Batch of 3 targets.
Target 1
Amino acid sequence: MSSLVKTSYVNGEFVAYQGSKDILENKNPSNPSEIIDYFARADEALTLQAISAAKAASKDWANSNPQFRADILNYIGCEILERRTELAQLLSREEGKIFKEALAEVERAGRSFKFYAQEALRAIGEKYNSVRNQVDIDVYTQAVGVVGVISPWNFPIAIPAWKIAPALCFGNTVVFKPAELVSSSAWALAEIISRSGLPSGVFNMLIGSGCKVGNSILHSNDVDAITFTGSEMTGRQVAEIAASRMVRVQLEMGGKNPLVILDDADLEIAVDIAIQGSFFSTGQRCTASSRVIVCSGIYEKFIKRLVEKTRALKVGDAADVNTEIGPVVDAKQLQQNLAYIQVGLHEGATLLCGGEHLHSEQGGFYFTPAIFTDVTPQMRIYREEIFGPILSVLKVNTYEEAFLAAEDTAFGLSAGIVTTSLKYAEDFKRRSSAGMVMVNLATAGVDYHVAFGGNKRSSLGAREQGTSARHFFTKLKTTYQFA
C-alpha cells in the first residue's frame, strides 16, 4: 500500500509517506468501486511546515527576475497542454465531466499559465509630478506575500490554475489546498510544477480536510492573503476569519443565474443555449443558468422543444464518447439533487422530465436533467443554488417583467438574454447587476484572459483572471523623492 499512497508537496518535495492511517480514497463517480488514487491526508503540523516554507521563500521570489518567473510559468503551461489528453482523462475519471468538457478545462488551465508568463514581463508603474517643487513620485506594485489558495471540486485544474498562476506571476508564494474530491488533478498539477525550476517553498500543495488544512491556512498569521472558491456558507466563514486577521480576501461563492428568453428569440438557438448553460457539466457550475425566464409569446414552443431535447440527452459514464451528461460528483450531491426534486414538487411546481437517479451496474451517481414549470419566484428551487442539472422555468409577459425577474436574486454572478433586438440586448447589458452578462450565449462559458467575478452575494474582493488579477495579488507602494 505504501508505494501506492501519494502525498502532499511541501518545500520543494513530495513528503515521505509515514504510514498514516488517515488515507483518502479518490473514487470515480461513474464507477464508485474504482479507486483512482490513495492519498495520505496532511495534518495541521504539515500545513504549518508548508506555510513556514512559503514564508521563508517569499522575499527572494518577490525580488526574482521577471524573466525567470515567466519561463517557469510558460514551462508549466506548455506541459499541461502537451499532456492535455492524459490530464483530461484523469479529470474526467475523478470529477465526472465528459472528456470533451474535461479537455477544454485542461486547455484553459494551460493557457492561463502561459498568459501569466507574459504578464510577468509587463511591469506596471506610474510616475507623477508632485504639487511640491523638486519632488518626484513613483507608484508601483509589489507582491503581497504568502497566498492561501483554496479551490473547489467542480473545476479541478482550471480554478487552481487561474489562482496559482497569477499569484506566482506577481511574486507571491503559494500554499494550495484543493478539494479532497479532486485530489488527483491537484497532485498532477503539483507534479508538473515540481519539475518547472520553481525554487523550494514557493509553491506548496496540501491534500487534506478543511477542518485541519483549511483552518490552519486561514488562521496562520504568516498567510497574507486568501483566495477562495466554494460555497457561500464556507465563504462567509473565510471572510470572517480574514477580517479578524485584517488580511485581504477574494471570494467566489456561486450564483442563481437567470437566462431571459424574449419572444423574438430564435427558438433553436434559445433552446440550445438553455440546455448548454443549465445541464452541461452536470449543472455543477457556479455560472450555470438554473433559472430560465421566458416570455409568453414563445413560451409554449420553447417548453415543448426544451423537453424534447432534454429527454434526448444521453446520461452515462463520463468515459463513454457518446455520453453528454456525466455523473454528479458524489453520493452527497446526488442526494441533494433528489431532495430538491421533492422540494419542488412539494412547493407545487410541475416536473416535466428528469429528476431521477439513473441506476447502472457500476453504481454511478447518475441523475437525469430535470425541468420544472409552474414555478413562482418564492419557491426554493427558484431562489436557492442547487448545483445540479435542475432547471426552473418562469413564465412572464414582457421584457420589463423578465428583466425584473432576472434581477430578483441575492446573487449576481452571471446573467444572459436571448433576443434578436439590439435595443433589448443593450438595455439588458447596461442595467443588469450581474458581474458578467451574456447576449445570445450561455451564462456558463467565459474566457481566461478577461475579468471573472460577480456582485451581491456571489463574490467579494477583486476580480479573478486576466489583467484584473493584479489588483488582488499585488499591493501598491507610493514613493516620494526630493530631487
Target 2
Amino acid sequence: MTERRTASISSRKQPQQARSTELVSAILDAAVQVLTSEGAQRFTTARVAEKAGVSVGSLYQYFPNKAAILFRLQSDEWRQTSGLLRDILADAARPPLE
C-alpha cells in the first residue's frame, strides 16, 4: 500500500529583501483578482502567476501549491480582522453598545 501525499499549506520560504516582498505581495494581489474574476473553480497557480506577471517558478519559490496561497490569504484576513477588533475593544472613548 502506498502512502498518500498530503498537500502542504505553509509557505516555502519567507521573503528577505524588499524585491521579494514585493513579489509575494504581487502574487497575493493577483490571487485575489483571479478569485474575484474567475472564481475558486478556475483558480490555479498558473493563472495567478500570469496575472501577477511572474513565472510559475517564481511563484513556487514562495508557495508550494494553490492551497498555500489560499491559506495565506485567509491568514492575512484573520490577522487584519483580529487587529481591527482589538483596536475597537481597546478604544475607551467608545463604550460598548448596550
Target 3
Amino acid sequence: MAVMLPEGEDLNEWVAVNTVDFFNQINMLYGTITDFCTEEICPVMSAGPKYEYHWADGTNIKKPIKCSAPKYIDYLMTWVQDQLDDETLFPSKIGVPFPKNFMSVAKTILKRLFRVYAHIYHQHFDPVIQLQEEAHLNTSFKHFIFFVQCRILRNLENSKFESAFLVTFKVHLLRNSTLLIEENLHHSKN
C-alpha cells in the first residue's frame, strides 16, 4: 500500500517524491560503509562477478568508463543530485509542469540507484551486519523494489538481471536469518 499512487495525486509528483526519498536513503546507507568501500577494496563497481558497471552521464562522460566503486558511486550521487536540483526536471513549485521526459529520467535515476543496493548487498553485506544496519537496508531495499515493480515503473531493469539480483538478495536474507537463529541458540545455551 505504501508504494501505490494515492488517490487524486499526480503520478509525476509521486514518482519525484519517492525518487528523492530513495536517493536520500541510499546515500545515507552507503555513507555508513564508505570505510569498507575503498579504491583498494572495490577497484571495480560491481554486483558480483557477472555484473560490472561502467560510468557515463551522457554529458561530461559520454563513453562509459571503468572505475572503482567509490568513484562510480560518487559520480552517480553527484549526477543524481544535479538532476534533482534541476528545476526543469524536478520542479519544486506547485503548478509547474513536469517535462515530457520526466518518467524516462526518473527510471534512469532509479535504475542507477538500484546498482548501489546491488553493490552493497554483494560486496559489503558483512560490514552492514557488523554495523547492525541490515534491518534498515533490507526495509529500504524492499520498499524500493515494491515501488519500482508497481505498474508505473515495470521496465526499470531487464527482468533477467533483476531476477538474478533478487535471488541473491533472498540468499542474503536467508543467511542473515540463519546468523540470527545461530546467535539466539548460542545465547540460549549460555
